């Protein structure tokens, strides 16, 4: 076998980071950790460096870099510690790197993920916000550099597995009628509507089937996660929003489906564990062990499906509108959502106000074309400022 592939894990201290490192450690002959990055959980990053001995580590600022560098040197490691966005972009695009796991949460992941794409890497995309914000630019950069983009989001990874290998010639030419995006419905699928005003961050983060970071957990509870995934699917598979249907499937066993014109519907099933899509994308087109337990269909016993309730989940409607509007609207939706979710996690707003903030921002900020990074980042900044003004005023 050839030398082990060099892997950069952006967002190593997070939930996807942990699952990625678990899969990598099962295959030391295939993979070596090239770089690990963290942001606030720097003690965890130090522990991960001691375990995986990367060539580089990246932290947010110079002081944190000095501290980690000293600690790693004292432990006998030759890991070099970089800092800031420039450090993230360096380890994403370094010539030695074969694949980059893009698992920073939110807009902060945009530039490093784009750097990996522009350097023509194999990019394992978990950071859906980057694609939602800058889909046209992002996909153009993939085309221009010849980067290989593999979806990590379980739904998109499932769709990728259910599409024919030459789907890039177009969904219609591939005989695809619709993409069916499954959603668990989150922890509030059956909560009485009136009670949604009073749910807490702890309740929102207690997802019934998946263990994830806090931001995506809140997004799952509001179904903004599915809205972002709808936009993500449109870019990844060159679909129109109308070609992507969302269905609630509370067991999270079917990760998504593709409906073909001949009546065939292909689905990908598995236990809800992110190590499956991670292992799939890492090894593609081969298959490797992920550590995930085999699916026991006898214990699953039944698979249920429901139509999403748009009154309960207004974020899903807002995201579909943004997908249809295009331009900078998805970037504004994403930015307003990031501010609103952070405020909810800090108990500054109610759960139901997340949708109100996004609605307000989309109604009060002008949108434009999204054909340069400056346009996208400008729209992101204006949407954040508008959302913060809503918070300062106490809304309404
Ligand atoms: P976590 O919150 O668990 O991890 C986020 C990672 O990003 C951490 O390593 C964090 O560092 C880092 N980070 C946060 N802010 C910054 C910043 N400003 N600059 C640099 N790094 C930063 O999130 P998840 O792992 O759950 O999610 C990561 C991404 O993957 C998200 O985009 C999410 O939507 C997507 N995803 C996640 C799934 C899951 O099952 N978890 C499923 C599908 C997609 P630190 O912790 O040190 O602060
Ligand atoms: Mg998902």
Please explain how this structure is put together.
The protein is α/β, with parallel strands linked by helices and 396 residues long. Among the domains are: 5-151, NAD(P)-binding Rossmann-like Domain (Rossmann fold, 3-Layer(aba) Sandwich), CATH 3.40.50.720; 153-190 and 225-308, no CATH class. It has 16 helices and eleven strands. It has helices spanning 15-25, 42-52, 62-74, 84-93, 110-118, 128-145, 154-162, 201-205, 214-222, 224-237, 275-283, 297-300, 314-325, 329-345, 353-364, 373-393; strands at 5-10, 31-37, 56-59, 80-83, 99-102, 122-125, 148-151, 176-183, 244-248, 254-260, 265-269. It has a seven-stranded parallel beta sheet with strand order 4-3-2-1-5-6-7, with helices on both faces. α5 links the parallel β5 and β6 (122-125). α10 runs parallel beside α13 and α14 packs parallel to α16. The longest helix is centred in the last third of the chain and has 21 residues, at 373-393. The relative contact order is 0.11. NADPH dihydro-nicotinamide-adenine-dinucleotide phosphate binds at residues 11-17, 38-41, 103-105, 108, 126-129, 153, 210, 212-213, 215-216, 274.
